[in-house]
Amino acid sequence: MARRKKIYEGKAKILYEGPEPGTYVQYFKDDATAFNAEKKAVIEGKGVLNNRLSEFFMTGLNTIGVPTHFLKRLNMREQLIRQVEIIPLEVIVRNFAAGSIAKRLGLEEGAALPRPIVEFSYKEDSLGDPLVTEEYIIAFGWASQQDLDDMIALALRVNDFLAGVMYGVGIKLIDFKIEIGRVYEGDFMRLVVADEISPDSCRLWDVKTGQKLDKDVFRRDLGNLTDAYTEVAKRLGVMPSNVTHATKPTLIN
Ligand SMILES: Nc1ncnc2c1ncn2[C@@H]1O[C@H](COP(=O)(O)OP(=O)(O)O)[C@@H](O)[C@H]1O
Ligand SMILES: [Mg+2]
């Protein structure tokens, strides 16, 4: 069997050369990292769940006219995506205070924000993905003013979609992060949602109990991460409710 070309191996995913020019195969690993990769673990079943969940969100976005890199799911851990030129920014949308904004501004976790807040951090692990202003982004040429306006509009559309879908299954969308890439078509360039949308990149709280169903379960040692992600997948109907994560063979004496 021919070995395929590995394009990039990141913390949670691997990109392989795709079957056609302009495509990649995105492989979801079970690796989990937090605090800029200071905390690491292998969480059995996470990659399978994130592959399914990212497919679910990206397909939904495509259906309502929000362009994404997603083409099709190939198998349990892999999906075919369009190759894009990633803008080196993490685009974060916050509906409620949590994480760094709560810390920075002394807000209580879960406090409602006056409106959705979009912020950017520079995607550079060695610097811990620092928060950057629009001034920085334009001055350093990471994106133009037009790109920024388009990125904010795109991020807010994703927010409305995700928040609505989540609320429909009793989950509050606290915040999320996306990456955006450029696709060139002849003389035109457009921005599309890339990377992944999964509980690794969102904060999701149960509406009634406030239980966390996202990567904070791992960051803060709140329980079994795969169980939390399985709960999200079950509620969204992307996994039959009787199927949980990979079962281990058991020895019969
Ligand atoms: N459609 C795409 N085209 C090109 N690169 C992509 C695309 N989608 C995601 N990427 C990049 O692939 C990598 C995915 O692997 P990940 O494990 O998340 O890496 P990282 O550790 O850099 O966050 C990221 O660097 C992301 O920017
Ligand atoms: Mg990543």
TrEMBL record:
**Gene Ontology MF term list:** ATP binding; phosphoribosylaminoimidazolesuccinocarboxamide synthase activity
Show the catalytic activity. Answer: 5-amino-1-(5-phospho-D-ribosyl)imidazole-4-carboxylate + L-aspartate + ATP = (2S)-2-[5-amino-1-(5-phospho-beta-D-ribosyl)imidazole-4-carboxamido]succinate + ADP + phosphate + 2 H(+)
Q: What class of enzyme is it?
A: ligase
Gene Ontology biological process = 'de novo' IMP biosynthetic process; cobalamin biosynthetic process
Cellular component terms per the entry's GO annotation = cytosol
Q: Supply the InterPro entries for this chain.
A: SAICAR_synt/ADE2_N, SAICAR_synt_PurC, SAICAR_synth, SAICAR_synthetase, SAICAR_synthetase_CS
Could you tell me which CDD domains the record lists for this protein? SAICAR_synt_PurC
Give all residue intervals belonging to the SAICAR synthetase/ADE2 N-terminal domain: 6-235
Q: Which UniProt keywords apply?
A: ATP-binding, Ligase, Nucleotide-binding, Purine biosynthesis
Q: In which pathway does it act?
A: Purine metabolism; IMP biosynthesis via de novo pathway; 5-amino-1-(5-phospho-D-ribosyl)imidazole-4-carboxamide from 5-amino-1-(5-phospho-D-ribosyl)imidazole-4-carboxylate: step 1/2
The entry sums up its family as follows: Belongs to the SAICAR synthetase family.
Q: What protein name is recorded for this chain? A: Phosphoribosylaminoimidazole-succinocarboxamide synthase
**Source species, please?**
Actibacterium lipolyticum
